[in-house]
Write a structure and sequence with these properties.
- 2 copies of one chain form a homodimer.
- The first copy, chain A, is mainly α.
- Chain A is built from 6 helices and 3 strands; from the N terminus they run αβααββααα.
- The first copy, chain A, is elongated, with a radius of gyration of 18 Å.
- The structure holds a DNA duplex.
Chain lengths: ~120, ~120
DNA sequence: ACATGTACCATGTGTGAGTAGGGTACATAT
DNA sequence: ATATGTACCCTACTCACACATGGTACATGT
């Protein structure tokens, strides 16, 4: 399992990490239960900041593709194969597109939609 | 019907115009059928750019609070009283809040929601 | 002592959008 | 000729956010 980071790629570094790890799980290069390199270790190998790797790990754990066991390190999640196929972002886009489409059909300006969205996201809830 | 524009108010100038004209309709200061000042006229009086006034007028006409009749000028819409009470922005916020709330409950990051929203708004206008 | 994930402080850079303005031009109809 | 709304060109400023980075610190266990 080798990971390649391209600084010039417009895709964010943490996103490159996520997609490559998910791809590794699906291709079988990374197997459930298998140990992942530590955050600092991987950051050093890829010459990335540890925060960048930590961000990727945090999202991968939320998606249950990896599992962190505190001081014991990080491992591929038992259900990783199934979960790495779930595209949460695609679901969000689908839902949002439906919403936005309704607004546009009602004659709402894109600018107004953006403003409303901004207000929603700034309200703590 | 006097309109006051406050440059220091964080609310955009065109939005100040819209809300004050809607308020004027609801208070009865502006009656259906009544002529509105021309865009250039109002812009001169309030020391605003004509584009700013035009933007307010465009949105007011979409909401059917005013009516433009080409070279004949702009008038208060016959149904202005009813339409000035409709808060399209509030409806949009309500719908969006419901959507976003579902995302957050699903564990989606605010950052991810913002990114998905940005993609939706940029693909196809 | 050492490594794990994680938390907080902070910085800088780039991008995208909104707002507002200036200018010019046009078809409309008086 | 004049006035109406409207269309397009352009500029500038402001603000919020994502991204990535730096450092320090902590409880957790070996």
């Amino acid at each position: 399992m080798d990971i390649t980071i391209d600084i010039d790629d417009p895709e964010p570094l943490f996103a490159q990490l996520i997609s490559q790890i998910k791809a590794g799980v699906q291709s079988g290069g990374l197997k459930p239960g298998q140990a992942m390199p530590s955050i600092r270790q991987l950051a050093g190998d890829l010459e990335l900041n540890s925060k960048t790797v930590a961000k990727a790990y945090r999202l991968l754990e939320r998606d249950e593709v990896i599992q962190t066991r505190g001081y014991r390190g990080t491992f591929i999640h038992p259900e990783a194969t199934r979960n790495s196929e779930i595209d949460l972002a695609a679901w969000v886009k689908e839902q949002l597109a439906e919403c936005v489409g309704e607004f546009r059909r009602a004659g709402v300006t894109d600018s107004e939609i953006r403003i409303a969205f901004g207000e929603i996201m700034n309200e703590r809830s």
